[in-house]
Amino acid sequence: MSYLLILTPFLALVILNLLPNRLRETVGHRVCLLILAAQSMIAGLSPFVAWSRITSMQLESILGFNLLMDNLSFVLLISAGVVGAASLLVGWNTIKHGKERFDFINLLLISLIGMNGISMVRDLFSLYVFIEVTAIATFILMTIHKTKEAFEGVLKYLILSVVASILMLSSISFFLIISGGVSFPAIKAAINLSNPLSLIAIGLFLCGLFIKGGLVPFHAWLPDAYTAAPNAVSVLMAGIVTKASGIFTVMRLLNNAIGYNEPVKNILLIVGALSIVVGALVALGQKDIKKMLAYSSVSQVGYIIIALGAGTKLGLIAAAFHFINHAIFKSQLFANAAAIETQVGSRDMDKMGGLAQRMPITGATSAIASLSVAGIPPLAGFWSKLLIIIALFISGNYIYAVIAVLASVLTLAYFLSLQRRVFFGKITQEMAAVAEAGAGLLFPAVALSSITVALGLVFPFIIGLFVR
Amino acid sequence: MIDLWLILIFIILLLIEGFYCVVATYNLLRVLIGLEILIKAATLFVIAAGYVSGNMALAQAMVITVIVIEVVVVVIAAGIILGFFSEYDSLNVRNARNMKG
Amino acid sequence: MEIMVLLLIMMVLAALWAVMTSLLLRSAIALALTSVILTVIMYRMGAPLAAVFELSVCAGLISVVFISVISLTHRLPLKEYLARRQSRIMRFWPLPVILIIAGVALILIKNPLGAISPVSAGAQDVRAVMWNLRQLDLFGQIMILLAGVFGVLILFKGYKHD
């Protein structure tokens, strides 16, 4: 079963490129949407169906892939499916040129293969390879519109990504010296905290992952890259790619390879707290919508890391749920920003005002997402933030719990400021001619909002499913 | 038996050169050359690790994969630099400081 | 042992030349030279397959890419080049100094890593490992090459050699 998740997009890629030119776009669109929907459903039904038992013996004997689809992978699989579908729908309405659309579909499929690979490998070096696959697909995706800003954003992302790659490679070399192999069980058996080599290896790998995930103090590439990318690509990057390469990998390593040690927990707590505070503070002063959303991403990802730093099972559950929530509401906010940008023509929030009268649906969905980020009940964000704060409290990190609560107030502040500046208030002269965005851009926003609301209402009942 | 620390000294020197080149240059192509030097240092470290731990087969397989990744990254970076050149008509890195993130 | 030290010193010097020279073309050639020396080092350490890969790909392909990009982007006029050269020397002269200081400091530290013994007596052949154990990496490589192909198609459209 796990093979299909990697091989199906690959087969689709091959077949789509062999089709004649006329059919490519439409068929590609349908096929890609089908694959993403199927993946979301498979991952979503995972607590009820034991997918790992449905395997095909012949396939396993031909291909010697070493994949395992365990409970943790479903978090990434379902997020990738949902965010990928949203990005595809947003891309369908913002990318006009036919050939660019087809390039977008191809690269989206490749990055999907990369992310599915990240979620299912059992080996440190294969993890690195699939992180690179996703990164390379993202580099090319950012340049499909060939604007000045896009090239600058990609350049910064590329340089820091290569630095992260060499940090990870050096760490893999250290692990090879310590344990003689690079699979997760071998590393787990060989880690010995009194040996300085182990500490250096773990530290280097974590630094590489923090650069990829955009955590403070390695977040320098993130605001420019998110702002400069085409809108559909921003949805993809903010929603899943940064988190898959950086944060999910940290979760996977803590669970399977490194384990919860004291120095690791301290590093995670400090980096998480720094990211939350710095991200929230800088987001307060932004004028550009996408840049504010980018700094908000830095802040929210800090929440996930600080939950992991708590070191308990509750912390892991809280982190996983906040991961899924952040994927949903951040991609929805970027979809709203895309709608605003296509209709208004600029991203400067000072020029906007009173758009709620002209773009009611966008305003409503944006309000729902903002409340979810800030942690207002009964939306999904409230539950995940509550779990994070409880996990920090129970494990004894009182200072960090207080920081998390205070930063929640900051989050509410900047999102309310966004809502007020863009949607509420008196409608200004230039905005009077703005119309509501097309149906294609509204559909993903509405769908994601309803998922947020539904998850929030249903969560107390399904929390049992998360406790694995 | 080659001493690991000896090789590590040279790897650290190469890393210093690579980082200095990326930081101090005004030309985009030289930034790419600095990144290349960094990747070569990492490759040498993988081979040295394989040599010291005895598992040379695994190290060689890893290095071959890393070389494939490296060449694709260089080709894409070259494409981005060409795009930069066509927009700004110069390869000066200071043109890329417009967006103050 | 001594040859290895000599080779490593040559590699660091070749990389230094690549960083310090002011002409881009010479920098690319110095990078290719670094690759060649790395190839010899890898061969002497017992990694012949990886060495030949590095030689053909890095010293070959990447140099071709660099030289084609250099030829597609025009040069600076002479006045600007000379003015740039002065500021170049100001920016780059600390590098050899830092290298010498760091080298001396590191040699004097005398091995803080402790004794390292070979952990696994792996006598397997690279080919067996690559095709039997690391098939997932091979699939990853195919994906990366596909992504590279798409990248070339998207990024390099419309550039003609002048």
Task: Name the features.
heterotrimer, A: 468 residues, mainly alpha, 0% strand, B: mainly alpha, Helix Hairpins, 79% helix, elongated
Low-pLDDT windows of residues of chain A: none
Mean pLDDT of chain C: 83
Count of alpha/pi helices of chain C: 7
- Beta strand % of chain A: under 5%
Write the layout of secondary structure elements.
The complex is a heterotrimer of chains A (468), B (101) and C (162).
Chain A: H1 2-18, H2 21-44, H3 57-62, H4 71-94, H5 98-120, H6 124-142, H7 148-179, H8 184-190, H9 196-213, H10 222-228, H11 231-257, H12 262-284, H13 289-310, H14 313-344, H15 360-374, H16 380-394, H17 398-422, H18 439-466
Helix pairs in contact in A: 1-2, 1-5, 2-4, 2-5, 4-5, 4-11, 4-14, 4-18, 5-6, 5-11, 6-7, 6-11, 7-9, 7-10, 9-11, 10-11, 10-13, 11-13, 11-14, 12-13, 12-17, 13-14, 13-16, 13-17, 14-15, 14-16, 14-18, 15-17, 15-18, 16-17, 16-18
Chain B: H1 4-24, H2 28-53, H3 56-88
Helix pairs in contact in B: 1-2, 2-3
Chain C: H1 2-20, H2 24-44, H3 48-72, H4 78-92, H5 94-109, H6 126-133, H7 135-155
Helix pairs in contact in C: 1-2, 2-3, 6-7
What does this structure look like?
The complex is a heterotrimer of chains A (468), B (101) and C (162). Chain A is mainly alpha-helical and 468 residues long. Chain A has 18 helices and no strands. The two termini of chain A are 21 Å apart. By secondary structure, chain B is mainly α. Chain B has one domain: Orthogonal Bundle (Helix Hairpins), CATH 1.10.287.3510. The mean pLDDT of chain B is 87. Among the domains of chain C are: 1-73; 126-155. Chains in contact: A-B, A-C, B-C. Chains B and C meet through helix 1, helix 2 and helix 3 of B and helix 1, helix 2, helix 3, helix 4 and helix 5 of C.
